Amino acid sequence: MTQDSGPDGSSKKRVRLPADERRQQILDAALVEFSSVGFEGATVERISQHVGLTKAGLYAHFVSKDAILDALLVDTIFSPSNQNHWQWVDGATLEETIDQFLQTAYAAIAEPRSRAIFRLLITESGRSPERLRNWHEHILLPHALRRQEELDRCVAKGVIPNNAVSRKFSLASAPVVVALLTYLLLGEELAEQEVAEIRSAHREMLLLLFARGDL
User: Fold this and answer.
1) HSE-CB of 127 using CA atoms within 13 angstroms
2) How many domains does the chain have?
3) CA separation for the pair 210, 213 (Å, rounded)
4) pLDDT tens digits, one per residue of 114-171
5) Looking at the DSSP assignment, which residues form a beta bridge with residue 2?
6) Helix (H, G, I), strand (E, B), or coil: what is residue 158?
7) Which PROSITE patterns does the entry mention (predicted)?
8) 103 found inside a domain
9) Does residue 70 sit within a domain?
10) pLDDT tens for residues 190-211?
11) pTM beyond 0.90, yes or no
């Protein structure tokens, strides 16, 4: 802790947060700033002011504004440490395995923070194709490969068949993207029923496709 002088000359304590808490605080402030004025309009100075840091103090946690944006994507949505979407459990049925995937995927897009980051990703990709290519190579593609490896392990265990959908994770998860866009376009209240119907149809689709055997 350090002590600062108040307006009356008295001293007040300033709490020094643990590094991980301060890092999350910076990310939260950055998401608000990016969502409000866009990535290009946001400044490290304003983000640091939101959390009571100097620019130098913020740079102790993130080397650049780009690094903050990358961390928002990785920490919230595309983290290697996130719970597996498809995780084969000994004795699990196809229905249980699919339900686990759906629970994980739809819970993720139901989070307002996740939707804010996806909205930011869509906006910034249109403004900066080069940044989109960088995200695709270093963040999105590795995430998709990890998810595909989960499906491949399920195929190897015999939980799901080896067919066109199990060989391409983006096909197995495509309705989740439709549900996400529904949230973004309609808002949570209006989208709730439609997303529930998409999820139900998604479940029926996967049960049908993964019960048919090899294609």
Assistant:
1) 10
2) 2
3) 7
4) 888 888 888 887 788 888 888 889 888 988 898 899 899 889 888 889 999 999 999 9
5) 14
6) coil
7) HTH_TETR_1, HTH_TETR_2
8) yes
9) no
10) 999 999 999 999 999 999 999 8
11) no
pLDDT at 66 over 70: yes
**CA angle 19–20–22, rounded 5-degree value:** 65
Q: Based on the domain organization, do 136 and 175 belong to the same domain? A: yes
Query: Do 203 and 102 contact (CB within 8 A), yes or no?
Result: yes
Averaged over 25-40, what is the pLDDT? 92
Task: For residue 95, tell me if it sits in a domain.
Answer: yes
Domain with 38, as residue range(s), is: 1-65
- Could you tell me whether strands 11-14 and 2-5 are parallel, antiparallel, or unpaired per DSSP bridges? antiparallel
Q: Sign of dihedral through CA atoms 201, 202, 208, 209?
A: positive
Contacts of 64 (CB under 8 A, 6+ apart): 44
Q: Strands of the chain (E only): list them.
A: 2-5, 11-14
| CATH number of residue 22's parent domain | 1.10.10.60
| Structural domain includes residue 100 | yes
Q: Which residue has the tokens 């459990």?
A: 89
Residues 93 and 165 grouped into a single domain? yes
CATH number for position 142: 1.10.357
Q: 25 and 55: one domain?
A: yes
Radius of gyration of the chain (CA): 21
